[in-house]
Amino acid sequence: MPGLFLDAVRDVHVHYRRNIxxxxxxxxxxxxxxxxxxxxxxxxxxxxxxxxDLPSEFADAVADGIRRELPGDVEYEWDKPLPxxxxxAAAVRVALTDARWHEVDSSERGFRxxxxxxxxxx
Length: 122
Description:
Helices cover 23% and strands 27% of the residues. The chain is an alpha+beta fold. The longest helix is centred in the middle third of the chain and has 14 residues, at 56-69.
């Protein structure tokens, strides 16, 4: 979907916390969105953090949440891998620039939701 991001959107901060009695999902991320040229129809995710800053499974969950929230003609089921983006998918590069996580309270689900919220906040 060319035109979704006409200009770059920098420093989108999202904190996802949910108290569900005791431990709850916790994720904090900062991402940048940048439009890709009109002739590109793909999603590009760049993780600037190393494994010590954010485990790779959490970074992958951020990317997954963002892709699932972007408009386009991608049909998916939550429990199955995403198909390739269709011809009307958003052409955007997303850079994960900062994140915070907790050894006990963080989960892939929390980071996936933080990715979805980042798209909504951009």
